[in-house]
Write a structure and sequence with these properties.
2 copies of one chain form a homodimer.
Chain A: H1 9-16, H2 20-27, H3 35-48, H4 54-61, E1 66-71, H5 77-92, E2 96-101, H6 106-118, E3 123-126, H7 136-144, E4 148-151, E5 161-166, H8 167-180, E6 186-190, H9 196-211, E7 221-223, H10 228-239, E8 247-250, H11 253-265, E9 275-279, E10 294-297, H12 300-319, E11 333-337, E12 339-341
Parallel strand pairs in A: 1-2, 1-3, 3-4, 4-5, 5-11, 6-7, 6-8, 8-9, 9-10
Antiparallel strand pairs in A: 10-12
The structure holds a DNA duplex (16 and 16 nucleotides).
Organism (chains A, B): Olivibacter oleidegradans
GO molecular function (chains A, B): DNA binding
Pfam families (chains A, B): LacI, Peripla_BP_1
Chain lengths: 345, 345
DNA sequence: CTGTTAGCGCTTTCAG
DNA sequence: CTGAAAGCGCTAACAG
């Protein structure tokens, strides 16, 4: 029960009657240390059950081998898939992941970012809170020299690193699919208008309609704040139109779930009176008796992995002390094409 | 662009022509420092945008204000609900959460535990990997003086701290419900036999049958390894019996999802030919047209919060240096009753 | 190849 | 009320 009596290099040095620096070097396989000494040191370290005190190393090296991941919510399937892959990647590099959920609250987000800064994380992966409009933290982190990679919810700025998913390709496929099935009344339940993700979807929606020679009906675009009530209301708005649409693209699966409930509550039948396609983030369709017609896959796991990869590149670059300020890395963006998958029906 | 030129207490001391110790004390509101000095120090610190270097503090204080959370999977709803609450709780105490997913692999689990030990976390919350049979890490962590709280998947040992959910109450209610609806052919799709959680469920299942005067039919208890195939196979085993059961309790929602698919694939109808109740961990029933009859709620969020609470008690206790070894805290367990909820049908 | 020395930033006795 | 000095455990010039 050698409580708290963790051995240190000093202890090893004393027992071996050599200096601490030699011990340190031996332990780190420094080439300049003789093979025999190295062996002796390692052997004793083993015996004593020596473990380096990383807090000392962190302190000394100004590096923590820790990255921060900040997400709106840890309990949404999209994000848990992403973090799962991030953790995986980090783990393979012997990095540790620290975690924060913003709950889409900008204040909370800022607080988490500060905590992470204070913990001196080596980098941050961030999916911004939906309601964040001011991105002061970008400046804060830049000053602190902490690299950041965004994904999913990416601020509409140039000088940032991000994994973005091209929402347009998937939307086009969705509309094409609907059109080729003969649908003309195609509606769109979009998310909050201020989100880049909403704008992009909407543009793509309109483009795709035009492409298919379907005239745009403004009533067919409705908005939800993504709450259950918002989703339901938006859906009812569509259902109550004199000319009810027969096909609906929606912002994401959560919206679709509520929408389908609303549809049923009105005595209509999914996949008969009305068809759905949505951006995928909830992997349950295979279990539903009447799933949407298809999903636009956004590959959250892949996005997470790519974000991690990009972040580690930035970290490595920093570490290899590019003293020159070319290190002001211009924002780099990797685009991931969304695409239609899972023809459920 | 004061790159890397974070001000230190030394800097403040110099400018104010006082000693670093005074600065340190002032910053920490030490009572022995004069009000005026304290003010001056704080003011300058503010101006310089001083931020204490936590890595130095961690090093000095042998405390990292970080807890580790290790879960089998980050992408299962049950666990994301739990971690979400843990993060919440930790956040409110200004602690940081570091994260690891074992993917139910004992080796990986051990590796993560070592990483966390090395990062000197102040405590760990752990839901053990399903396949872990050897709990050497308990000893390791005890020696390292890192308190641990288990939840959900808890080793069957006495000297550990844990939040356990009493699976029996819920099972009893489930069987009672089935029985009161007139079901006599009640089956049980259990998880891997070696799990404490499976054993407990099975005991409760048998007890409850007896209680309701229903004779036990051994064929009505089947097992799955929780894979999709395992779930399907187990279900088919039941369906193919000469006397098909009319009601099924299953290990958890994921099992039920696959089971319901299997049932449908055989041309049977859920909630007509066969009824389901399962331990809840997947919040989607409200969206299903034919959900299970009810769910046995296990309150993952609450379990997480309780685990965090218990862990912080242990940490605080340690910190208030109970040098005496009464600190060999006997295992304490908090039991959470599972109960039947969501009468979906 | 190895030892000496200094120091990371902060806290904390011990003396005033 | 304040300062001087030591030290946490480790690394890294700089000397041999």
């Amino acid at each position: 029960m050698n409580k708290g009596k963790q051995p240190t290099i000093k202890e090893i040095a004393k027992r071996l009657k050599i200096s601490t620096s030699t011990v340190s070097r031996a332990l780190n396989d420094h080439p300049s240390i003789g093979l025999i000494t190295t062996m002796r040191v390692k052997k004793l370290a083993e015996e004593l059950n020596y473990e380096p005190n990383r807090t000392a190393i962190f302190f000394k090296q100004r590096k923590t081998f820790t990255i921060g991941v900040i997400l709106p919510s840890l309990s949404e399937a999209f994000f848990s898939a992403a973090i799962s892959e991030i953790e995986n990647f980090a783990n393979s590099r012997n990095y540790t992941v620290i975690l924060g959920q913003s709950l889409d609250d900008p204040e909370r987000e800022l607080k988490i970012i500060n905590t992470m800064k204070v913990h001196r994380v080596d980098g941050i992966i961030l999916s911004s809170a939906k309601n964040t409009r001011e991105f002061e933290y970008i400046e804060i982190l830049r000053n602190a020299g902490i690299p950041v990679v965004f994904f999913d919810c990416v601020p509409d700025l140039v000088q940032i690193n991000a994994i973005v998913s091209n929402l347009k390709t998937g939307m086009k496929e969705a509309i094409d699919t609907f059109a080729s099935c003969g649908h003309r009344g195609i509606a769109f339940i979009n998310g909050p208008a201020h989100l880049p993700a909403s704008k992009e979807r909407e543009e793509a929606f309109i483009d795709a309609l035009v492409n298919n020679g379907i005239p745009l009906n403004r009533d067919y675009i409705v908005y939800t704040d993504l709450s259950e009530k918002g989703n339901t209301d938006a859906t009812l708005q569509l259902i109550n139109l004199s000319e009810r649409p027969s096909a609906v693209v929606s912002f994401n699966d959560y919206v679709t779930l509520d929408a389908m409930n609303a549809v049923r509550s009105k005595g209509l039948t999914v996949n008969q009176d009305i068809f759905f396609i949505s951006y995928a983030n909830y992997p349950i369709w295979k279990y539903m008796e009447n799933p949407p017609m298809a999903s636009i896959e956004q590959l959250p796991g892949k996005q997470g992995a790519l974000a991690a990869e990009m972040l580690f590149e930035l970290i490595d670059r920093d570490t290899e002390e590019n003293a020159d300020d070319s290190g002001i890395k211009q924002g780099r963006k990797i685009v991931l094409e969304s695409k239609l998958v899972n023809q459920h029906v």
